[in-house]
């Protein structure tokens, strides 16, 4: 068993919360290591298969979403290849921890504010979010306004799009 397999198979489900947190924290550090990217990509896919964002501890979920946020804009590893957006939205709709919900909103925000997206595409993405989970869509709107992640004008337009 390789070190990465040991980390994924054993340490990511360890009974000690700090050990599970260290797995996600360490994986985030590995993202900057060019020689580890192939192993890192495979490990991330396994790690987020049934773990991380579904962990029973909100601190572990927070670190898992911080790791996913570190993938946004990564040159070689694509977020969409590690975890599907519908899973993120489902977790977002059920998440009770405010700090984790904020981290999820930060993760989702670039999908709706990418430069060059046409207004029609933004609306289409908002509709998809609303269809997947109305709760997630409304929570997302609330958080991006409350945390000043988006201007009030843009958020108002976003809110109108959700209601339509």
UniProtKB/TrEMBL annotation:
One CC-aspect GO term: condensin complex
GO BP term, example: mitotic sister chromatid segregation
Protein name, entry field: RICTOR_N domain-containing protein
């Amino acid at each position: 068993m390789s070190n990465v397999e040991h980390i994924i198979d054993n340490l990511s489900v360890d009974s000690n919360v700090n050990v599970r947190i260290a797995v996600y924290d360490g994986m985030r550090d590995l993202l900057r290591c060019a020689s580890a990217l192939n192993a890192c990509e495979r490990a991330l896919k396994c790690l987020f298969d049934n773990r991380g964002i579904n962990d029973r501890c909100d601190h572990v979920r927070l670190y898992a979403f911080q790791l996913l946020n570190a993938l946004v804009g990564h040159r070689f590893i694509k977020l969409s290849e590690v975890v599907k957006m519908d899973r993120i939205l489902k977790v977002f709709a059920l998440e009770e921890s405010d700090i984790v919900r904020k981290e999820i909103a930060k993760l989702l925000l670039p999908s709706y504010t990418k430069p060059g997206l046409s207004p029609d595409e933004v609306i289409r993405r908002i509709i998809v979010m609303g269809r997947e989970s109305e709760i997630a869509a409304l929570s997302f709107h609330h958080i991006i306004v409350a945390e000043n992640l988006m201007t009030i004008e843009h958020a108002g337009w976003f809110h109108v799009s959700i209601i339509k």
